[in-house]
Amino acid sequence: MSKRDYYEILGVDKNASQDEIKRAYRKVAKKYHPDLNPNNEEASDKLKEANEAYEVLSNSEKRQRYDRFGHAGVNGNGAGGQGFEQGFGDFGDIFGDIFGDFFGGGFSSRQRKSGPKRGADIKYQIDIDFEEAAFGAEKEIKFRRMEDCSVCNGTGAKPGTKKSTCTKCNGTGEVRYAQKTPLGQFVNVKTCDECNGTGENIESPCNKCHGTGKEAKIKKINIKIPAGVDTGSVMPLRGEGEPGEKGGPRGDLYIYINVRPHKIFNREGNDVICEFPITFVQAALGDEVEVPTLDGKVKYKIPEGTQTGTVFRLKNKGIPNLRGYGRGDQYVKVVIEVPKNLNEKQKEILKEFAKETGETFHQQKKGFFDKVKDAFGG
To answer: Whose CA is closest to 276, among 254, 249, 299, 244?
Structure first.
């Protein structure tokens, strides 16, 4: 019987790339695999045919000979009738890639028992005050994590009893199922369902942890929050997370910082912003005032004729740099308060004042209306 064209078998064009050939082979091989087609000779023949085609077309030298001379150019190099390891070279790896998930435990007779596994990380959010974020603080935190069982000390077995090696997997944690096919012998590896992959059996599980060896406990630790943190800052504490498996290390604890708002101060980077109210008289005549800062009150001289919205700077009165060098500044915005509920005498005094000052008192207002005239005319 004449052989079919290898490109036709895999359903690809003669100009197909190696990636396209591999994808096509994976599709055909999965379709006709013996586990999906038990006792189906036609499927077995289709799979052998696909294997032979792929072995030739995946090899650049053999593919060139096949393209030039057809089947005669690769006669004797096909895979038909040879053993799996000899005839197919790295087909075991290809099949493992294709069927690993399908078989539930990987496709390799050489797969080893899984080793130590690192524990999971824990996230914890802490709320702190504005001043604590600025200057740092020490805090005690409490969080829940898994620890060795207090009754069985982590063995999972009832006190006075022991674990035994799993007889089904002989302590490997894996069970291998050999299956003979026309292509050779396949070995499927699955997690042992008797011991759930631990390699050990517990005849008398601990009543406290039910054989897991772990129980949830409240952990208390003291942490040092560095100066300069802000909302969104994250502090990693190595080795304070969940315990690992099979001797693996603990995960980490990640502390997420949230800073409560301040009644007076706002923060922009390492700078502190605040508004400071002054009276009309203080703005007009000038005055020495006490301005609140994170370090306490400091004296500042308001110059005569200060206008509302004026911003002055207090150097090095901001937030310390998180990396430990320097501090930001504090910016103080002046807000002039307009007096309310004036009595008749106060009103008369202000009217007299306005009368005495005349236009000189309204330089900003005059300048504003000059701009209006320039913009709109009239």
So the answer is: 299
